[in-house]
Recover the amino acids of this structure.
């Protein structure tokens, strides 16, 4: 079959899809070979619609962990609601009386919270991931454990815990860290649910979601607060000092003791004990450390312990 | 309500194709992970209220992914442009070798995709990267199949013009001419 008319738009899309009978398809391609206009359209459409090389694109395991954690957070709540609903259906008058009583108690509690101010509400953290040895109040932790206020969390060497109570942020404590989740002492902030995580030893990473605009990462050690902007860096926390060696890009460092702040630049070594010392980075410097050589990337995945650099994209 | 096993099975079945779409839409690996998580959060909320069937699930996930991408895109437009991460090649530093033409072409197509408005951007990416059928794209974007086809044709025309302007496809346009010259040369040689 010889085709003389140009290929129509609708046909062009079907031709690329292979949704046109073979004979007709051959006729169209024969026409395209002779017709510069149709040839250019067909070639361009085929090139534009050819799939990109997506072989390397896959979400990290952290997403599955977050999805699982979200599911578990939700799984408890609806069941409780169902029970309340069933109760309300079966015993209407008792339900109304209970609701009134609950409202009164709530009012009383609110007053108490306002009066006690800094104590805030009870916040419980859910654990979304555990690797290695993690203990909460000296009991071995698993995914069903809860982190209540005043819990002491101990993370063993080469171990990791992720926890949160909303999808707005996630906290990770890694490698030989000790931290305490405690109620915030925030005078003046009355009735607000506030709490702090006090790091005694080691490193924690917090990943905060800033509205829908993206994620912000920061690292904390007992001596310093660090916010990578972009680039590669090595972060080490050992004894009473934190060392940062920038390989590229920059990072904001704040000393928690002296409140001194610097922007870390490549090829410099920053040692934070109380204040921040700056020196040239030499590879020999790394030998000073034999523990907690924790390496970080922006996606929060921990590299193997013998790796020595991390990457952060701004 | 979905049970956990079913949710994880659905995640394993659909997360990769959703992720490819979101990365190609947003140009950012980390934003894509965030949006992917939110897609499944939305699925959990939806499944708590309505029955989920295999028939409507894929369309639901793509509709959600697309809406989240569009929301993110709008908020970024308000904030002004930001650099893409490593998934988008930097045209300025592309090496001037033979391989770089396909890379440059891919980079240029990525730039053109960034310039597409909705629903053209979603339609184009769903076809290009995932090979969805027109009825599937129509369900995910909420347009008729006819509209999807028309808009994709128009998008392809516009992109082709842009690529021509950038110097791509000259070869394809002159291809029949090259063939004619080649044949003429062979015929001439045969005569001698």
């Amino acid at each position: 079959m010889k085709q003389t008319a140009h290929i129509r738009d609708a046909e062009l899309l079907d031709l690329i899809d292979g949704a046109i009978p073979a004979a007709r398809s051959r006729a169209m391609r024969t026409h395209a070979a002779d017709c510069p206009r149709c040839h250019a359209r067909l070639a361009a459409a085929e090139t534009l619609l050819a799939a990109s090389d997506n072989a390397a694109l896959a979400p990290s395991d952290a997403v599955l962990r977050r999805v699982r954690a979200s599911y578990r957070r939700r799984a408890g709540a609806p069941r409780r609601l169902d029970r309340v609903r069933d109760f309300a259906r079966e015993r209407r008058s008792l339900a109304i009386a209970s609701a009134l009583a609950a409202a009164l108690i709530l009012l009383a509690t609110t007053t108490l919270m306002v009066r006690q101010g800094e104590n805030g509400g009870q916040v419980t953290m859910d654990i979304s991931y555990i690797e290695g040895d993690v203990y909460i109040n000296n009991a071995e932790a698993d995914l069903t454990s809860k982190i209540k206020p005043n819990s002491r969390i101990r993370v063993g060497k080469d171990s990791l815990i992720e926890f949160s109570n909303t999808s707005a942020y996630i906290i990770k404590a890694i490698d030989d860290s000790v931290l305490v989740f405690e109620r915030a002492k925030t005078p003046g902030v009355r009735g607000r649910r506030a709490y702090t995580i006090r790091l005694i030893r080691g490193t924690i990473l917090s990943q905060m979601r800033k509205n829908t605009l993206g994620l912000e990462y920061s690292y904390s050690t007992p001596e310093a607060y660090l916010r990578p902007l972009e680039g590669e860096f090595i972060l080490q926390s050992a004894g009473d000092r934190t060392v940062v060696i920038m390989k590229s890009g920059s990072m904001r460092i704040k000393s928690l003791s002296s409140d001194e702040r610097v922007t870390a630049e490549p090829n410099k070594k920053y040692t934070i004990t109380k204040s921040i010392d700056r020196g040239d980075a030499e590879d020999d410097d790394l030998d000073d450390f034999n523990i907690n050589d924790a390496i970080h990337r922006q996606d929060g995945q921990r590299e193997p312990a013998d790796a020595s650099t991390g990457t952060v994209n701004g | 309500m979905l049970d956990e096993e079913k949710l994880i099975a659905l995640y394993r079945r659909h997360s990769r194709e959703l992720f490819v779409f979101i990365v190609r839409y947003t140009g950012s690996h980390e934003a894509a992970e965030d949006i992917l998580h939110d897609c499944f959060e939305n699925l959990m909320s939806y499944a708590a209220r309505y029955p989920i069937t295999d028939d409507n699930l894929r369309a639901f996930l793509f509709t959600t992914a697309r809406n989240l991408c569009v929301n993110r895109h709008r908020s970024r437009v308000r904030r002004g442009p930001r650099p893409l991460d490593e998934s988008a090649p930097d045209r300025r530093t592309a090496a001037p070798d033979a391989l770089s033409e396909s890379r440059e072409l891919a980079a240029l197509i990525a730039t053109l995709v960034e310039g597409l408005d909705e629903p053209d951007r979603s339609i184009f990416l769903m076809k290009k990267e995932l090979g969805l059928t027109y009825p599937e794209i129509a369900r995910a974007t909420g347009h008729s199949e006819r509209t999807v086809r028309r808009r994709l044709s128009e998008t392809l025309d516009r992109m082709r013009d842009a690529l021509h302007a950038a110097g791509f496809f000259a070869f394809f346009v002159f291809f029949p001419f090259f063939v004619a010259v080649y044949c003429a040369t062979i015929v001439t040689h045969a005569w001698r």
Q: What stands out?
A: Chain A touches chain B through 49 residues (CB under 8 Å). Residues 1 and 23 of chain A are 7 Å apart (CA to CA).
